[in-house]
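Re: export button greyed out
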Amino acid sequence: MSNQELDQLVDQDYKYGFVTDIESDTLPPGLNEDVVREISRRKKEPEWLLEWRLDAYRKWLEMTPPEWPHLTYPPVDFQSISYFSAPKKQGDGPQSLDDVDPVLIETYNKLGIPVEEQKLLAGVAVDYVFDSVSVVTTFKEKLSEAGVIFCPLSEAVHSHPELVKAHLGTIVPQSDNYYAALNSAVFSDGSFVYIPKGVRCPMELSTYFRINEQNTGQFERTLIIADEGSYVSYLEGCTAPQRDENQLHAAVVELVTMTDAEIKYSTVQNWFAGDDEGKGGIYNFVTKRGECRGDRSKISWTQLETGSAITWKYPSCVLRGADSVGEFYSVAVAGKKQQADTGTKMIHIGPRTRSTIISKGISTARGQNAYRGLVKVLPGAVDARNFTQCDSLLIGDQCGAHTFPYVEAEEPTAQLEHEATTSKVSDDQLFYLRTRGMSEEDALNMVVNGFCKEVFQKLPMEFAVEAEALLGITLEGAVG
Amino acid sequence: MLSIRNLHAKINETPILKGINLEINPGEVHAIMGPNGAGKSTLTSILAGRDEYEVTAGEVVYQGQNLLELEPEERAWAGLFLSFQYPVEIPGVKNIYLLKAAVNAMREHRDLPELKAAEFLKLVREKLKIMQMDEAFLHRNVNEGFSGGEKKRNEILQMQLLEPTLALLDETDSGLDVDALRIVGEGINRMRSPERSVLLVTHYQRLLDTVKPDFVHVLADGQIKLSGDYTLALRLEKEGYEGIEAA
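Workaround output, generated via the alternate export path:
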């Protein structure tokens, strides 16, 4: 494909993002085959994708929600949810920042978010003609020069059907788990990224740049393909608290790296956590998996999970290529009445595959934090290596930390190491720092940031600074 | 500068301090000596603002303020410094990060501009030299894996940087070998000035050879039993606490 052709394609994508006229109504609650057909029809999808959705739906019907997580919540009534909601029209949301919950605005200000962005985040009706449009335009031009494709998945289905068809569901199969099956049947939208051979993506790709384009909905689906020798860093989410009237979120993210390619996927998840009793918080059931398909390829997951009432999430790596590398760096915070059951799976298939897991769980108030991880080494993964470190930090005495490490090694030459610690923020530490002139909250932040440092330094620079600020705000009131 | 009047304190219903009276003027160095369990560390902890002790009677006035009403950080801003007997480890936090945060926290409350990274580095290098500490110290996690002597030197390094008005040194000499003792002692001496006072808690007389106190007090059973000049320390060394108490 020539550069010119690519330019055209990307330009076309750009146009598409703005002119696609989706009917703006919402389907009535309930799920059946007709609903799946209707979603597909409204999105003007090709026949193969409708069949794929229907296939997923039929599989989902045969499945039951997982009961093994360390989570307690009332059963979700899947028939009470509406499965298609078009992007909001101008004028639906609050008319100005004055109509937005002042607590939210205060948090935005603490995070230093500019007013225009605050409007976007809070869902205030804004005209498309404002500063960030020019940012997005420059950004798209730069990407198209590099031949990178970055667009909504719903758009890629039309503009790059061969790429979508070849990879969708190959990393997270429809029947992988209950929520993945549901997502496959009714997914709303998400990002599609393709990095051509040998290309180092010239900038960090961020969902932020797509905020004003489309409402990705509660069943987000993302597919990132890194072709041979390419590299991309992708940022998902933002530090500002996101509100959503949909309580259930079931997203799927699929990553695939070809020979010598690398994907660095960073997440800051700050969905509404609910009130102090956990009421109204988001249920976040996510399936994220990357496949290192090519030799010497690498996938790295870095996450800061501070939001949601319930987090059920295990970003994983299938290390198929020889000498491929999987990494998982995670900070998960459970405060209020939040429950987090999160961790990773590292599946070693290829020889000399290596994986690293660094998990930091922080529990405060009445939060419950569980690390759940699987390291599996299949026969033939000669000299595979894994290093796992799970650290838990407790603040206060009503919270909990739990660790569930699973190891299945079927290859005698594999070397696996596991370290785990649990510690409490001690009064001695806080007192020591306070005698050095730090306020109680600053002292707590310093101790907690020290605890998280190994993970934060894996985040892209700007994100890391925001992450520290976010952690500080999340822990406000945790002491004293 | 500091007036302690009839201070009584307890922890978990056990009385520790039973009427302490002590007057410290600017520029003075006071040494408090006494047997284990006499309440020496309790006294410095209460002065620095540790809240596990309950003050049951008495008052402490520091530069005209009721010290006991202030939070630990407010006391630090007002120029109080405690060198810990057992400095605490803070995993993952680099020493330089803590030092800079501490220096700038103090400056903020003294209406001084924040020190920039380069300015701070220049300052801290100067102080490291005084304490004969390697620069690698700055990049290690706070007190993590430090030897006993390194921890104590690090405390005095912090004192040099924070330039307190009143320094409380809790058993700063324990765990030090002869060379380290001299370096720490000289580090303290450099800080002596007509405006700055030091309250030094120690078990042994040896640090006092280098840091000559103006006054020596014997604390036993929660009370100051005896006060005198430097020669009292020499007498204690010779006769022991029992001999003094009996007298």
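The CA atoms of residues 43 and 181 of chain B lie 23 Å apart. The button fix ships in the next patch.
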